[in-house]
Amino acid sequence: MPKKTQAQQEALDYHEFPRPGKLSVEVTKAVSTQKELSLAYTPGVATPCLEIEKDPDAAYKYTAKSNLVAVISNGTAVLGLGNIGALASKPVMEGKAVLFKKFSAIDSYDIEVDTESIDRFCSVVTAIAPSFGGINLEDIKAPECFEIEKRLVAELDIPVMHDDQHGTAVISTAAIMNACELTGKNIEDIKVVIVGAGAAAISCGRLYKHIGITNILMLDSCGLVHKGRSDLNVYKHEFAVDTYLEREKIFRTADVVVGLSKPGSFTTEDIMHMGENPIIFTLANPTPEIMPSETKKVRPDAIIATGRSDFSNQVNNVLGFPFIFRGALDVRAKEINIEMKIAASKALAALAKKEVPKDVCEIYNRELSFGKEYLIPTPFDKRLIVEVSSAVAKAAIESGSSTLKEFDINAYKKELAKRLS
């Protein structure tokens, strides 16, 4: 076997020591006396069991369900690793659970389901769903992920979201909103090119349509998605334009390009054809489609975002999923609908325009303020849980996803501010 690099060995040591993995279970009630033991287990535990039998909603009152999300994957599309299988995906799923806890104080278990069958996967998740307040689907390949999410949303009465689809969509939508404001572009008038046609790309395109973008061109590995092709699945058909266009015409006068593919899937030659002050998001990870330095050489007027933390404007899903689920759980939303996603995008866009706290600037060792190098908040901004979660909760109630009758948003914001502390 080839020798491990220092970075690889550090990663292995991090996951192995002082104990394997990144998660453990903590006990939230005292169990140090005979009386406490009798309340925690038999005979006392029978009383809440019977209350839940009479009223299933009582589970939110007497169990951890109200603050518990399952991170579920079959390991078919793991990060940049591809179909590595359910068990090999476990470190990533544990990591996602850690982020839930770290950023939104949500407890989370990782569950790896060893099947590529849509029917079996949905059957397993539906069967275990009563344990949880929400389901975060993760790293499931397209196009199966669309059908899986659709079925589970229809079958379950708790929030279900495939973050690989919707996380990138929510964050990039916020970034596009702010980039358009900085460059004086009208959302309704812009031309957007999406390079990639997988789960994230389809979801991004859908959300962009909902905020008023109508001129969207999508490219997959075979080129432009258009109606003359016979190889398109039903999801790509949503974005098929009438006729074939040459590559130069695709990028000519484009205002935005969103890369959700792989390095080199579009080039500096392509972006040279874009309009003034182009908005260029190269979101392939870990290596962007074009490195920012190369983009700046040919388009110094560009606003650039990547998926990496070592460049400005990181489109990072951790800006979305912890706070979307936080808001959804707290008002017992039945689903995470389009109104809640748009509310999250708008809250992120608005937060980026506020003065950045000193402690956040210190983390990044530079002054941060709204502009071309700071389109969206950073993951370490502690105001995210307040602003995004409250916006999502409010949208859930107003859209009917939650039937909560009494909701004081100001009181809720104060409660959220205390959560992480």
What structural keywords apply?
421 residues; alpha/beta; Rossmann fold; four-stranded parallel beta sheet; 10 strands; 10% strand
Describe the structure.
This protein has 18 helices and ten strands. The strands form two sheets. Strands 7-6-5-8-9-10 form a six-stranded mixed beta sheet. The mean pLDDT is 96. It has three domains: 153 residues, Malic enzyme, N-terminal domain (Rossmann fold, 3-Layer(aba) Sandwich), CATH 3.40.50; 141 residues, NAD(P)-binding Rossmann-like Domain (Rossmann fold); 103 residues, NAD(P)-binding Rossmann-like Domain (Rossmann fold, 3-Layer(aba) Sandwich), CATH 3.40.50.720. The chain is globular and about 75 Å long. With 421 residues, it is α/β, with parallel strands linked by helices.
Strand and helix layout:
Blueprint: H1 6-16, H2 34-40, H3 46-54, H4 59-62, E1 68-73, H5 90-104, E2 107-112, H6 118-128, E3 134-137, H7 144-155, E4 160-162, H8 163-183, E5 191-195, H9 199-210, E6 215-220, E7 223-224, H10 234-237, H11 247-251, E8 256-259, H12 268-271, E9 279-282, H13 292-298, E10 303-306, H14 321-330, H15 338-352, H16 358-364, H17 384-399, H18 409-419
Parallel strand pairs: 1-2, 1-3, 3-4, 5-6, 5-8, 8-9, 9-10
Antiparallel strand pairs: 6-7
Helix pairs in contact: 5-14, 6-7, 8-9, 8-15, 14-17, 15-17, 17-18
